[in-house]
Amino acid sequence: MEELNRITETAASAAREAGKYALRRIDDLGKIEHKEGFNNLVTDVDRTCEEIIIGRINKAFPSHSILAEESGEHASGGVFKWVIDPLDGTTNYTHGFPFFCMSIGVMSGGSIIVGVVYDPTRDELFTAEQGKGAFLNGNRIKVSRSEAVQDSLIATGFAYNVEGKIANVDRFKVMLQKAQAVRRAGSAVIDLCYVACGRFDGFWESGLAPWDTAAGLLIVKEAGGTVTTLKGDRFDIFKKEILATNGRIHKEMLNLLRGRFSN
After folding, report:
1. Which helix (H) or strand (E) holds 228?
2. For residue 207, which of 174, 160, 155 has the smallest C-alpha distance?
3. Is the pTM of this model over 0.85?
4. Pairing of strands 181-183, 32-34
5. What is the pLDDT of residues 70-115, one digit of tens each?
6. Structural domains present in the chain
7. How far apart are CA 232 and CA 57, in angstroms?
């Protein structure tokens, strides 16, 4: 479908441009502000990256709608909606920790049809189109083949609010005991992409927003992975909790995460 290819190319070009800008500004962040809490940051770079991406979309597809982390809804009533996280991992970025990215997902008919994630520090571009597989820098990727949590590298993230952090501590402790290792690097989007390409075998997190999962959801699924809520229900980007795995360890992770700690 030519339209889908144009959307993917535009998303990739926009993400790359924003990523290059973020790298140029990493030692000159400008104003750093706090959003809902002391640990939820936004910088001038976040906003400019978003402007870059939205500018590209509006030029190529002026009838499309947009949902962006920093500026909210840009409704036009079109069939397609772009869901943008212009800089996922802002706290990492402000400290010079090289684990952040640009994420763009595109919805149509309630489903994500295109996912693009760009990690500028490693020059890694993850892409997926519905039904066409997932790719890293043009090479097809697949989830891992790990069959058990004890042989798996697992990732998680902690919510911005204190209550959310505390709620995840018990789950974290269980995974520390059961998994080969657990990582917490600070970008849900990259964590999902790492599940897709087999670097992680599973990932869970709560307290997420649509732009945290829109692109990664499709990339994981197109790479052969499984994505649900922490209760095992069907996941969509407007749900706040996610479990993404290679599929082989999904049931075991669900049991570990929800068996003792489900609400």
Report:
1. strand 226-228
2. 160
3. yes
4. unpaired
5. 888 887 777 999 999 999 999 999 999 999 999 999 999 999 999 9
6. 2-140 (3.30.540.10), 149-258 (3.40.190.80)
7. 35
